[in-house]
């Protein structure tokens, strides 16, 4: 059976029945009702079909005239004229038809009813006659038949037939009101009785139907339903079903009714709920011996119902809910029962605050009366009264005597034991109820603070909540504290007068408590903080002015006078003014006790927020006492040592507020600044150092110069320099780098001169550390090495400082330019000499390429390599010097590049392009990039016209330059040297993406300069000569040497293109799948192709070195050896090769566009033939190698096979990934299409 088809068929039949006339509708309904009786196997589907038909009952019979019992008024006349026939008629325009005969189901036995309905008088209109006939059939046949279905005793069928009740109610709403009134109670009573079923599924189905009926009928019938439910479910476990059903009904109709719609049935509802919560029903649920498996008997929904009722009940009727609770509290004070009452009262207060008809005036009047009434009662002692004691004594006298002879027996006498009244002991619970309503209203701003009338009604609660602070119950005190904390922010006249009394009471509570763990104490702290922050407290303390306390002097052991026992007749060292706290809200002793009381809380995570809030409130009022300074010292330490970042932040804010608002002596302020510096540079954990730097930044930005400079200028400067030079944390170094220029910018000239003096002293260590050690004693030599290492560290610190402070100082740095340039010159010279000497020693000792070895050593420095290698001792010095000079060139370009520039420093920067360390190379390349960015390619011709004299010098020395300083790097020879250094960088194994991009930019500018030296005749295509073997083969190095020997400035551009092309071809032949060099070479090719004129580009000396590596790359199949990660993205070997080929094709397309298709095709054919020739030569050499050296041939063959196997594996993996993506895409596509 196709269930989807069955469902669609049922819905279709139901939709068709909505437009059928009565005769067909009646026949169809009777047909399926009969089938439901005859075929039990199809009962489920037939019931759904019958429900679909009943839901589409579309006949409006509300205008039919009936009597009070729902009987037709025309029945008597119809019975008298029973023998008369009614002619066949058609009623048009109404959708109703009357036929001559009716299809009567033989099994129903109600054919007589149809025949009888046809007997009407002619005087009645045909439409009314037809409606009366339908009404009679519905009442006499349809409704009784449907009622039989819902009165089924079989609980399995009841689950299927329970929804029929909803259809009956829907039909009844289409009948006249009197008919509905007479028929509906029986239906509702039947449904209520159905909830007695033992099967959980039957009860659930019945309850769902009842919910639908209530939502359909509305709240007007809710009271009758509750009455019927109460009558039907009044015994044993049925009471559990009753309370659960009431909860289900309230939950569903809560959103569709207005406030007050259920007030008429409030009394029976409360009676049911009280029985559920406090009666036998509630006791059964709480009993451990209760073993019922009914779902209704396992849940407590009574308090939820109280809350829902309170949210939809008029406020005048809330007392009806409180009356039974009052009676319960009058009878008992057992903790178990009172906890339940507390919960119910709390839920009622929540419901009241969610009530949509929240009336401020009524609420305040009610709360004031209930709080005032029960607060006075709760403050009295709950002991037995005198009358109760007398009654108890009388009872003792009436007991039996010890002798039976004297015993008197009272047979009919009733027990005269007085019943105790517990209301006085439980009165505080109603006080708490009233206070909760007021508190929730204040917190949710239900009381308008702009309405004078509302404020006038709130003002009495100031005294009322204040009296509540004297209660014996912690819950009352907590609520009063919360209410006072909110009301103190409102413009209430009674607040100012009550603040001193409240503060006095709070301190009394503090004295009675030994711990701060309780919620009551925490709320008291919050109230005290709110009081101190309020405007009322500000006005009360208008005349208060704090005085500074003298800081205690410490002895040699670090102890203060207060730590020692004072000698007889001597006063303690701390001076406290007698009038210091005269105008304060809190006395000196109270403040001292309070600080001692909250001191442990600043280290407790759960109570820190409240403690710091109170401390900051005290600081806001600038109250002063000696123990407050000690507390702030603890907070200062916690600012560094706390593990939680939020705690450190709060400590910083609190301590900074103390620094800004309190009078501090010079000694105390100096100690505070020293504490910050010591922890910023020397604390063990990074979090503490970062916190110290945070507060240091706030102090630098917020303190005035007259306070900051005398007390913190030098300590902060030295501390920041130390952090920049030696801290291991990058975050700390970045923060110090940000703060140092801000600090230096605020220095006056004397302090700036002292800073320059320090930097000069530190910078002198660069040259001193490079001097050879002449000590012969091993111990002295070791000490000398340690001293030189310290000198190098100081020199690096000086260079870092210069690099940081050049830009913010601006014009103030002008006088320091000569000294700075001398420091940079010395640093780069020492670095160059040390590196070159070590390189020469390595070459002489091992006979190898020392640069390659030094590159490996430099790359291993950060991964466990020897940091004291002689060749790389000054790599950091060189790096910092280049960075500092780069910032100098950008900040003061006229003194770096131009006629006043420093030619020697630029030459040193060029020499450092080939430094072994990658960081130095990058810094040198950036500095060269800054230089060429400030120049112009035409300067090359001007530099050549001057013909400056360049003296010869050793490899580690820079030759003297006699020309104009601005042209020092723009001569053809200098540009060639720069290009050579950049090509050496590009050929390295350690090329970062940033360095590669900078190399491409610098080489492009050099190409622009070289293009200016190309003769016009060469550009027009005359006089050009092809470079030998420009397409390249294995002998690239020999060709480069030959080209270098005949290099001229006219051929400088072709020389540069050949070098870059040779580098790319070398990677193809010997790189074993590497792609970095070709990637940057092809980017440079693309820039040069756009730069060089097409006529010049067509010449073989320019185009062949470009096309050869591009073509070879497009035909390359060798994959890189391993994946690479660039900017957080990992690329597989196949992806690397695909990207490189895509780049090569883009450059080829650009080249083809520039020179034309025909010329490019000819050049491409030439390159292909040359490549084929070279490949054939290689095959011949391999064959010869197999005969001459079989072992080497075998190794090469094995390596080739391994590469091929790895390439096949990569291809198979990539294909598998693609197939997986296709399958997933199809799967998601199918799902989306289904949706």
Gist?
By secondary structure, the protein is mostly helical. The protein has 54 helices and two strands. Helix content is about 65%, strand content about 0%.
Could you explain how this protein is built, in words?
Helices cover 67% and strands 0% of the residues. By secondary structure, the chain is mainly α. Strands 1-2 form a two-stranded antiparallel sheet. Strand 1 (1124-1126) and strand 2 form a beta hairpin. The C terminus is likely disordered.
Features of the shown structure:
disordered C terminus, 1235 residues, mainly alpha, two-stranded antiparallel ribbon, 0% strand
Summarize the helices and strands and which ones pair or pack.
Blueprint: H1 3-17, H2 22-38, H3 43-55, H4 75-80, H5 111-117, H6 126-150, H7 155-161, H8 164-172, H9 177-194, H10 200-217, H11 222-232, H12 238-253, H13 266-278, H14 280-286, H15 302-312, H16 318-331, H17 335-353, H18 360-378, H19 386-397, H20 423-443, H21 452-458, H22 460-468, H23 474-487, H24 493-512, H25 519-533, H26 535-540, H27 588-598, H28 608-620, H29 626-641, H30 645-661, H31 666-682, H32 686-702, H33 705-726, H34 730-745, H35 749-769, H36 778-809, H37 817-846, H38 850-859, H39 875-891, H40 893-896, H41 903-911, H42 918-933, H43 939-946, H44 972-986, H45 993-1013, H46 1016-1019, H47 1036-1045, H48 1052-1070, H49 1076-1091, H50 1094-1097, H51 1100-1114, E1 1124-1126, E2 1129-1131, H52 1133-1155, H53 1157-1188, H54 1190-1234
Helix pairs in contact: 1-3, 2-3, 3-8, 7-10, 8-9, 8-10, 9-10, 9-11, 10-12, 11-12, 12-13, 12-15, 13-14, 13-15, 13-16, 15-17, 16-17, 16-20, 17-20, 18-20, 18-22, 20-23, 22-23, 22-24, 23-25, 24-25, 25-28, 27-29, 28-30, 29-30, 30-32, 31-32, 31-33, 32-34, 33-34, 33-36, 34-36, 35-36, 35-37, 36-39, ...
